[in-house]
């Protein structure tokens, strides 16, 4: 037990770096796809800075919870090394299902509570290369606890996220070609969304003429009545 505590103290950096190591290329590609699928919507709603902050916090807390669960259930001799981003993916699923307004979901034709969806998807931990079942459980617990308001770490406020947007490292992220940077300010996100949303028909000046009624000459159709509006 003392050896494990000493290793944790001197290798505390591994609570972050384990998520970026993958056993092979298939595991890396699989984790990137899953994280992009479940994390892109969350990033659009909270911004890139807070998304990176939550990714870091979910990585650390999922690793700590994994270590505690293994020590309690299996003892100090059964702790195995883990790697991959599956803990972050399941934590984001837990967060999304805890804060959604949709209380029930259809899962393969079965109507179940939305909060149970990440737990049902735990079987994917046996399919994803390099994934650990216990670290996925830790990710779900951390994500749902944060989503229910049980803040396990300091909250990153919107003003702080907006201030970090102006720092050099995030300024460089904005300049990356082919990438999409989501600002931390809610007003800036709404403005960017309004610019990307196509305007409704008739909003262009050239289209207004198409929706204006053409006055009909009374002498051409003597039995008709002219209308100023539709």
TrEMBL record:
GO terms for molecular function: serine-type endopeptidase activity. Residues 11-151 form the Peptidase S54 rhomboid domain. The chain crosses the membrane at residues 12-39, 51-73, 106-126, 132-153. It is found in: Membrane. It is a multi-pass membrane protein. Its main location: membrane. The keyword Mitochondrion does not apply. InterPro entries: Peptidase_S54_rhomboid_dom, Rhomboid-like_sf. It comes from the Eukaryota. The keyword Iron does not apply. It holds the Pfam family Rhomboid. One of its GO terms (cellular component) is membrane. This is Rhomboid domain containing 2. It comes from Latimeria chalumnae.
């Amino acid at each position: 037990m003392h050896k494990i505590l000493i290793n944790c103290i001197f290798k505390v950096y591994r609570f972050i770096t384990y998520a970026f190591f993958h056993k092979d290329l298939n595991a890396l590609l699989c984790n990137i796809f899953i994280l992009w699928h479940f994390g892109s919507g969350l990033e659009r709603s909270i911004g890139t800075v807070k998304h990176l902050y939550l990714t870091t916090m979910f990585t650390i807390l999922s690793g700590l919870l994994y270590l505690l669960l293994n020590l309690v259930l299996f003892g100090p001799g059964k702790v195995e090394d883990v790697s991959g981003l599956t803990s972050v993916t399941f934590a984001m699923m837990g967060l999304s299902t805890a804060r959604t307004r949709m209380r029930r979901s259809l899962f393969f034709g079965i109507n179940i509570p939305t909060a149970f969806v990440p737990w049902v998807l735990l079987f994917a931990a046996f399919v994803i290369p390099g994934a650990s079942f216990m670290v996925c459980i830790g990710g779900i617990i951390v994500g749902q606890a944060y989503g229910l308001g049980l803040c396990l770490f300091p909250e990153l406020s919107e003003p702080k996220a907006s201030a970090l947007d102006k720092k050099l490292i995030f300024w460089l992220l904005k300049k990356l070609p082919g990438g999409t940077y989501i600002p931390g300010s809610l007003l800036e996100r709404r403005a960017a969304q309004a610019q990307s949303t196509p305007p409704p028909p008739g909003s262009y000046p050239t289209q207004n003429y198409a929706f204006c009624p053409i006055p009909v000459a009374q002498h051409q159709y003597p039995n008709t009545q002219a209308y100023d509006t539709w």
